[in-house]
Amino acid sequence: MAPILDIKNLYKNYGSVEILKDINVSIEPGDFLVLVGPSGCGKSTLLNCIAGLEPITGGTLSIGGKDMTHVSPKDRDIAMVFQSYALYPTMSVAKNITFGMKVRGVDAATQAAKLQEVASQLQIEPLLNRRPGQLSGGQRQRVAMGRALVRDPKLFLFDEPLSNLDAKLRVEMRSEIKKLHQNLGATMVYVTHDQIEAMTLATKIVVLKGGVVQQIGTPAEIYNNPANLFVADFMGSPAMNLIPAKAKRNGSGLDIEITRGDGAPIVLKDTHSGDLPEDVILGLRPEDIAEAGFRAGQDVQEAQCLIDMVEPAGADTYVVAELGGKQVTARLHAETKAQPGAMLDLAFDLGKVSYFAPGTGERLN
Ligand SMILES: Nc1ncnc2c1ncn2[C@@H]1O[C@H](COP(=O)(O)OP(=O)(O)OP(=O)(O)O)[C@@H](O)[C@H]1O
């Protein structure tokens, strides 16, 4: 299948400043691509380049198999939903949604039918005669989406569409967007700085930092096999534990030595990893460290740790222990008897381990 969006060697400069560097991304019909990264990493700029709102400095960009590198936004067969909603304040909701169709000369009956279909999909039928000023933030967001949906474009582009909503509404609208994507089978590109939004919505994630792609993959690939320390730290909450350790060959396996908070060494046996340099950063997610006895498997290794902090969080309890000079978080069951200041046997699942090079931050396994 031809990619719907194909970006090759894209560069974007503002004056002499390189904002995007050698971006290569392609997506298939029905994909939900999320561009995620910290503030200023260039994700909105990349979306604007896809939309044609910003010219690109180098490389090519095609949509639906056609080269769009120098094509104006209105001819790219895209629809964009902005963070600011960009609704016309003096027009009713219905007019806001149908305006684009009217400009394109779509006949009145088709306009009415499309309006009806989209209003029902988004459950905004009772609001059609109101003006944007008479709507809540979430309702305005729906109208902005309605305006994009009636276009039936090759590509939907979303620029942080939920960032003006309160936390509860964000979660609700997030699942609505997911449902919409599933029902429509549409292809979407979505910008967010919120890694949870990225994980929940995406079929494919691009993690950006400083205008450079750090990793492209499915949410599971990015979560389970982060390509470097930046991705490991940025994706996931609480973040992956990143523990300085020494890896030493011991027969067919590796001894992974970590210094405990009280200075005593603990040694975890890794039976499956290949050769590693001696100095490594060991990455384990909080859910891959359990209370001893609550995690089984051939790669599970237990070690006694001094617990510094216990944080009940309803369904789980997080405990924090100092390992390798870092505050390491483990996600335990809610009934744990862990006490701050007391020792506790923790079970480390080395089947889930990531190793990174301390210097470059690149993944080693
Ligand atoms: N018109 C412009 N002229 C010069 N520099 C710009 C311009 N627009 C954006 N930039 C710079 O480009 C970089 C990327 O900006 P961009 O808005 O794409 O980041 P972002 O990842 O979307 O961040 P945020 O999440 O804060 O919106 C920033 O350093 C920004 O200052």
Automatic annotation (TrEMBL):
<dbReference type="InterPro" id="IPR003439">
    <property type="entry name" value="ABC_transporter-like_ATP-bd"/>
</dbReference>
<dbReference type="Pfam" id="PF00005">
    <property type="entry name" value="ABC_tran"/>
</dbReference>
<dbReference type="GO" id="GO:0055052">
    <property type="term" value="C:ATP-binding cassette (ABC) transporter complex, substrate-binding subunit-containing"/>
</dbReference>
<dbReference type="InterPro" id="IPR003593">
    <property type="entry name" value="AAA+_ATPase"/>
</dbReference>
<keyword id="KW-0813">Transport</keyword>
<dbReference type="InterPro" id="IPR012340">
    <property type="entry name" value="NA-bd_OB-fold"/>
</dbReference>
<dbReference type="InterPro" id="IPR040582">
    <property type="entry name" value="OB_MalK-like"/>
</dbReference>
<comment type="similarity">
    <text>Belongs to the ABC transporter superfamily.</text>
</comment>
<dbReference type="GO" id="GO:0008643">
    <property type="term" value="P:carbohydrate transport"/>
</dbReference>
<keyword id="KW-0547">Nucleotide-binding</keyword>
<dbReference type="InterPro" id="IPR015855">
    <property type="entry name" value="ABC_transpr_MalK-like"/>
</dbReference>
<feature type="domain" description="ABC transporter">
    <location>
        <begin position="5"/>
        <end position="235"/>
    </location>
</feature>
<dbReference type="GO" id="GO:0016887">
    <property type="term" value="F:ATP hydrolysis activity"/>
</dbReference>
<protein>
    <submittedName>
        <fullName>Trehalose import ATP-binding protein SugC</fullName>
        <ecNumber>3.6.3.-</ecNumber>
    </submittedName>
</protein>
<dbReference type="Pfam" id="PF17912">
    <property type="entry name" value="OB_MalK"/>
</dbReference>
<dbReference type="GO" id="GO:0005524">
    <property type="term" value="F:ATP binding"/>
</dbReference>
<dbReference type="InterPro" id="IPR008995">
    <property type="entry name" value="Mo/tungstate-bd_C_term_dom"/>
</dbReference>
<keyword id="KW-0378">Hydrolase</keyword>
<dbReference type="InterPro" id="IPR027417">
    <property type="entry name" value="P-loop_NTPase"/>
</dbReference>
<dbReference type="InterPro" id="IPR047641">
    <property type="entry name" value="ABC_transpr_MalK/UgpC-like"/>
</dbReference>
<dbReference type="GO" id="GO:0140359">
    <property type="term" value="F:ABC-type transporter activity"/>
</dbReference>
<keyword id="KW-0067">ATP-binding</keyword>
<dbReference type="InterPro" id="IPR017871">
    <property type="entry name" value="ABC_transporter-like_CS"/>
</dbReference>
